[in-house]
Amino acid sequence: MQIYKVGGAVRDRLLGRPVSDIDWLVVGATVEQMQAQGFRPVGADFPVFIHPKTGEEYALARTERKSGRGYGGFTFHASPEVTLEEDLIRRDLTINAMAEDEQGTLYDPYHGKQDLDARILRHVSPAFAEDPLRVLRVARFAARYAPLGFRVADDTLKLMRQIAESGELQALTAERSWKEIERALLESEPQVFIQVLHSCGALQELMPELMHNSDSLITLHQAAQHQQSLAVRWACLLRGLASAAIKAINQRFKAPRECQELAVLIGEWADRADQALELAPAELLEMLQKFDVYRRPQRFEEFIETCRMGALPEDQGYPQAEYLRGAATTARAVDVKPLMDSGLSGQALGEALKAERLKALMAYRNR
């Protein structure tokens, strides 16, 4: 039995980046041997085990062959006879197909270190084209390592284009696609993810609505520079699309509820937010009511931030942000207790509260 550290932990150590998760590969062992040493089996598709003390994952070396469409269309084979090289060749990129033994010796049969030094994202073997999810993964890695000067190799981009043209991307589940999209959006250069998908034809297949929405990439980049939340980044990406298109993309990838809501609200209200300084108090109140700033202030704050990202660079300023925040604070400050004490309730109370808030907003605007 031989144990190797593989994949991202090796790659990031060589890049001098922090290593958070470690993947371990076991060569020359059986399921029974692993269990005899106290490893707890998990995973139904292939043998993965949890270390009895560290809780880290250890996978048996395995091979795979294509058996169906999509990300899950593979048959795996794990046995003590599978070599390290056979396991590594099934991986996506050469920079992810390196291993280290327990003494720290590097095993690099597919020249990942060379590509790492050259800042190239290159597929390991032609089998890359069998897994459509790898199109999204490579685009995500391009976004992650763009600040270091990485680019996708031409021959890898060609394979990605073949996958896009094959229709295989349509076999990806919404859940798996969203997981890659979410991770890509949270990278430091998320716009690169979209650019790579566009360059290989995958954007046309996955998110055709974004094909002519290049301004959103600038806004998305600004959101990343300002370390905005996932919901803000998603809304920045979809800003400028029609409401129907936003709803279609939300549903296609089953985006989290907070991401969906903010993106839809941006589609409906961003233009009026940009004109906030000219809005009549009644229009301003309508906006605040729509956002339910009384119970969900954070959602309105993220809406403001999304609008602000579209107005950067900061030297241009976005005075609408502070104006809208002040309006929300003003509306929230209206005390309902005096109205209730006067005997109002139900619809009458709601109308009276709305009138008081409108009066407060009129004073706020004329201050």
Automatic annotation (TrEMBL):
<dbReference type="InterPro" id="IPR002646">
    <property type="entry name" value="PolA_pol_head_dom"/>
</dbReference>
<dbReference type="InterPro" id="IPR032828">
    <property type="entry name" value="PolyA_RNA-bd"/>
</dbReference>
<dbReference type="InterPro" id="IPR050124">
    <property type="entry name" value="tRNA_CCA-adding_enzyme"/>
</dbReference>
<comment type="function">
    <text>Catalyzes the addition and repair of the essential 3'-terminal CCA sequence in tRNAs without using a nucleic acid template. Adds these three nucleotides in the order of C, C, and A to the tRNA nucleotide-73, using CTP and ATP as substrates and producing inorganic pyrophosphate. tRNA 3'-terminal CCA addition is required both for tRNA processing and repair. Also involved in tRNA surveillance by mediating tandem CCA addition to generate a CCACCA at the 3' terminus of unstable tRNAs. While stable tRNAs receive only 3'-terminal CCA, unstable tRNAs are marked with CCACCA and rapidly degraded.</text>
</comment>
<dbReference type="GO" id="GO:0005524">
    <property type="term" value="F:ATP binding"/>
</dbReference>
<feature type="binding site">
    <location>
        <position position="8"/>
    </location>
    <ligand>
        <name>ATP</name>
    </ligand>
</feature>
<dbReference type="GO" id="GO:0000049">
    <property type="term" value="F:tRNA binding"/>
</dbReference>
<feature type="domain" description="tRNA nucleotidyltransferase/poly(A) polymerase RNA and SrmB- binding">
    <location>
        <begin position="149"/>
        <end position="210"/>
    </location>
</feature>
<dbReference type="GO" id="GO:0004810">
    <property type="term" value="F:CCA tRNA nucleotidyltransferase activity"/>
</dbReference>
<keyword id="KW-0479">Metal-binding</keyword>
<keyword id="KW-0460">Magnesium</keyword>
<keyword id="KW-0547">Nucleotide-binding</keyword>
<feature type="binding site">
    <location>
        <position position="11"/>
    </location>
    <ligand>
        <name>CTP</name>
    </ligand>
</feature>
<feature type="binding site">
    <location>
        <position position="23"/>
    </location>
    <ligand>
        <name>Mg(2+)</name>
    </ligand>
</feature>
<protein>
    <recommendedName>
        <fullName>CCA-adding enzyme</fullName>
        <ecNumber>2.7.7.72</ecNumber>
    </recommendedName>
</protein>
<keyword id="KW-0378">Hydrolase</keyword>
<dbReference type="InterPro" id="IPR043519">
    <property type="entry name" value="NT_sf"/>
</dbReference>
<keyword id="KW-0548">Nucleotidyltransferase</keyword>
<dbReference type="GO" id="GO:0001680">
    <property type="term" value="P:tRNA 3'-terminal CCA addition"/>
</dbReference>
<keyword id="KW-0808">Transferase</keyword>
<feature type="binding site">
    <location>
        <position position="21"/>
    </location>
    <ligand>
        <name>Mg(2+)</name>
    </ligand>
</feature>
<feature type="binding site">
    <location>
        <position position="8"/>
    </location>
    <ligand>
        <name>CTP</name>
    </ligand>
</feature>
<feature type="binding site">
    <location>
        <position position="91"/>
    </location>
    <ligand>
        <name>CTP</name>
    </ligand>
</feature>
<feature type="binding site">
    <location>
        <position position="11"/>
    </location>
    <ligand>
        <name>ATP</name>
    </ligand>
</feature>
<feature type="binding site">
    <location>
        <position position="91"/>
    </location>
    <ligand>
        <name>ATP</name>
    </ligand>
</feature>
<feature type="binding site">
    <location>
        <position position="140"/>
    </location>
    <ligand>
        <name>CTP</name>
    </ligand>
</feature>
<dbReference type="GO" id="GO:0000287">
    <property type="term" value="F:magnesium ion binding"/>
</dbReference>
<dbReference type="Pfam" id="PF12627">
    <property type="entry name" value="PolyA_pol_RNAbd"/>
</dbReference>
<dbReference type="GO" id="GO:0042245">
    <property type="term" value="P:RNA repair"/>
</dbReference>
<dbReference type="Pfam" id="PF01743">
    <property type="entry name" value="PolyA_pol"/>
</dbReference>
<keyword id="KW-0692">RNA repair</keyword>
<dbReference type="InterPro" id="IPR012006">
    <property type="entry name" value="CCA_bact"/>
</dbReference>
<feature type="binding site">
    <location>
        <position position="137"/>
    </location>
    <ligand>
        <name>ATP</name>
    </ligand>
</feature>
<dbReference type="GO" id="GO:0016787">
    <property type="term" value="F:hydrolase activity"/>
</dbReference>
<feature type="binding site">
    <location>
        <position position="140"/>
    </location>
    <ligand>
        <name>ATP</name>
    </ligand>
</feature>
<comment type="similarity">
    <text>Belongs to the tRNA nucleotidyltransferase/poly(A) polymerase family. Bacterial CCA-adding enzyme type 2 subfamily.</text>
</comment>
<keyword id="KW-0067">ATP-binding</keyword>
<keyword id="KW-0694">RNA-binding</keyword>
<keyword id="KW-0819">tRNA processing</keyword>
<feature type="domain" description="Poly A polymerase head">
    <location>
        <begin position="4"/>
        <end position="122"/>
    </location>
</feature>
<feature type="binding site">
    <location>
        <position position="137"/>
    </location>
    <ligand>
        <name>CTP</name>
    </ligand>
</feature>
